[in-house]
Amino acid sequence: MTDLSKAMSNTPETPGTPPPSRTSVPLTAASLPSVAQLIVGVIGLAVGIFCWLILGWPLIGSAVVGGLVYLVGLPAWSLAVEGKRAATDRMMTGLIWTTFVVAMVPLVSLVYTVIDKGRRAISGDFLTYSLFKTALGQPDGIYHAIMGTLIITLGAAVISIPIGVLAAIHLVEYGKGNRLSRVVTFLVDVMTGIPSIVAGLFAFALFTLLFGPGFQGGIGGSVALSLLMIPIVVRATEEMLRLVPDDLREASYALGTPKWRTIMRVVLPTTIGGIITGITLAVARVIGETAPLLLIAGLADKTNTNPFSGAMSTLPVQIYSFNSQQDTIPLAWGAALVLIVLVLVLNLAARIIGKFFAPKTGH
Amino acid sequence: MAKSIDVSDLNIYYGDFLAVQGVNMTIKARAVTAFIGPSGCGKSTFLRSLNRMHEVIPGARVEGKVVVDGQSLYGPSVDPVAVRRQIGMVFQRPNPFPTMSIYDNVLAGNKLNAKRMKRAEADAIVEKSLRSANLWNEVKDRLGKPGMGLSGGQQQRLCIARAIAVEPQVLLMDEPCSALDPISTSAIEDLIHELKTDYTIVIVTHNMQQAARVSDETGFFNLKATGEPGHLVEFNPTKKMFSNPDEPSTEAYISGRFG
Ligand SMILES: Nc1ncnc2c1ncn2[C@@H]1O[C@H](COP(=O)(O)OP(=O)(O)O)[C@@H](O)[C@H]1O
Ligand SMILES: [Mg+2]
User: In terms of C-beta density within 10 A (0-12 exposed, 13-18 middle, 19 or more buried), how is residue A109 classed?
Assistant: First the structure.
């Protein structure tokens, strides 16, 4: 108690006598008016428009010049009024925004173009008819390709998810730097870099060996895609499993839980959201693959839901095919829009699933 | 159901590194045994070797004998999983399972091992364990809420409830109060007092007063020199240890004149 009261009396508690003042530092500084950014922005825009419309420069060049005026003008003005630190701050802020805009331009332009051109092709008929004509005047549709993409991707997921997740569990939980796990890690790294056409050739060769020359079928596409998917699933799962603190594993062992149950009941549930997110992103990554599917799954106008026999169209291959003929190019845009929407839905699903399964903190 | 532990000539390694050397002691049943000593002298390492948690770390191994109730823990056909069911552990940092509710956390030892039980039986275990851990009144209205939502002290008591829900013979605690405020600490000390009627308790602590308050016997670990392995300097009843220790270095450590 006495220690405590001694400690208390050490703290300065006399508001009446201020500590001896040092030379006081002003807390205010000159600053640009709050509309300064707007003013310089308008000037930059005006310069850009002047270059474009009056001088007849190309649009991109004019935009660059306008942007430069803003990027140089505002910091220069700030340097004159506010000093060096504020000027640097304004310049860096401007640069970061610029790089952000530059990165967004292609993305926005791509999505806009696909939506703009694709939406004209999309209709109920487009989504529910195949290209296989049973009557004259039957509308063109991509139902067969949508089904093909879904079936082949599902097949790839069915092959890759168990292999990928189990391999990752082996690497993280059992491998711990032994030779086998180092070899597997190396092979996974190599597989990550396999060009997709090589995966396609592998599947093609495999099925030629198994079933003779000229084999075509969805299952071949699934095998080719799973070659591309497995390394992504392994990597994503591995990363998630490594995030599980050893504390939790030890807590489980200390309750007399065997290792495999610890993995199944503690480690996996803790990270399942992240693992599912990783898997979904891997699916989104391979769903747009074209080259391997062109080789082994081929093209068919008729809807084929049996992956084990006969050619099976997929959206990317169908887009490729549509695009090679002048009169079906609008259909290519439509199919591209459908594919993008599929990928978008998968990404959204990944986010929602990740949120849903994330461990609850209760706060 | 509590059991005594006999340790003889125990050497504990991390790979080639000898962390703790030549420990001999008998830990009494139904008593609290405290381990004190400077950081890095191998208290945690020794504690973890008492329920075969040490070997969870790759390359870690043990030489010597640990005998619980006549059975050698490191015998050739002993299943470490079975050992850990008998000898529970509470860690320095509270580590409730983040995916589980308070209720499920308490039952984790049973659920993780897929033990089937009736709802009423499970409810009874949960209530009994939480009451023993002095947590029941604070959480009885929110058993379905996540265990991570509790305060640090409550989480640690939840971990104790989880450890005693499987009814082990021995409870090992590695600095269970080091992350807690004084009020939670005193709640856990009270709890240790109550638990010792049923369990053999071994506790590592950095807090000399805590060792003096809660334990019946105390072991002092130290390093001979930096780089040398840790060893047991003195093992005596707590009263003797804190009033009239055999070793001068024990007295120096306890009175704060260490080094
Ligand atoms: N996982 C580990 N791997 C290798 N050495 C370790 C590990 N954990 C602890 N050690 C070493 O073992 C010795 C004893 O550590 P520890 O038992 O944690 O001491 P204490 O709990 O008494 O502070 C220290 O030298 C420490 O560096
Ligand atoms: Mg320790």
Answer: exposed
Confidence of residue A11 (pLDDT cuts 50, 70, 90): very low
> Given this model, what pLDDT does residue B134 score?
87
Question: What are the tens digits of pLDDT across the range B211-227?
Answer: 999 999 999 999 988 88
Q: Is residue A224 part of a domain?
A: yes
Q: Residues A238, A89: one domain?
A: no
Are both A218 and A292 inside the same structural domain? yes
Between CA A333 and CA A319 the distance in angstroms is 8
Do A184 and A265 sit in the same domain of this protein?
yes
B98–A361: do the CB atoms touch at under 8 Å?
A: yes
pLDDT for the residue B227: 82
Which of B50, B99, B162, B170 is best to mutate for the A interface (most A CBs within 10 A)? B99
Whether the CB-CB separation of B192 and B186 falls below 8 Å is answered with: no
Phi, psi for A6 (deg, rounded to 5): -65, -45
Q: Do both A111 and A167 map to the same domain?
A: no
Q: Do B98 and A247 touch (CB under 8 A)?
A: no
**Is residue A207 domain-shared with residue A289, that is, in the same domain?**
yes
Is residue A166 assigned to a domain?
yes
Based on the fold, state whether residues A256 and A343 are members of the same structural domain: yes
**Which fold does the domain B5-94+168-254 belong to in CATH?**
Rossmann fold (3.40.50)
Report the distance separating Cα B177 and Cα B185, nearest Å. 5
Interface confidence (ipTM) of the complex? 0.91
Domain that holds residue A281: 143-357
This prediction has a pTM of 0.83
Domain ranges of chain B: 5-94+168-254
Provide the number of structural domains found in chain A. 2
> How much of chain B is helix, strand and coil, in % rounded to 5?
35, 25, 35
Q: Along chain B (259 residues), what's the average pLDDT of each consecutive run of 10 residues?
A: 87 95 94 94 95 92 92 92 93 92 94 88 94 91 92 92 92 90 87 90 93 94 88 95 92 78
For residue A282, count other CB atoms closer than 10 A to its CB: 29
Residue A248 has pLDDT above 90, yes or no: yes
Assign residue A299 the CATH number of its domain: 1.10.3720.10
Q: Closest by alpha carbon to A256, among B30, B89, B200? A: B89
A16 band by pLDDT with thresholds 50, 70 and 90: low
Ligand 1 pocket: which of B35, B45, B61, B233 to mutate (most atoms within 8 A of CB): B45
| A52 belongs to a structural domain | yes
Cα distance from N-terminal residue to C-terminal residue, chain A:
37
Distance CA A248, CA B95 (A): 6
Q: Are residues A58 and A193 in the same domain?
A: no
Note whether residue A265 is domain-resident: yes
Asked if residue A156 and residue A70 are part of one domain, the reply reads no
What is the residue with the minimal CA distance to atom 25 of ligand 1? B40
Do A261 and B111 lie within an 8 Å CB cutoff?
no
Mean pLDDT of A273-278: 90
Give me the pLDDT at residue A2, please: 46
What is chain A's mean pLDDT, rounded? 89
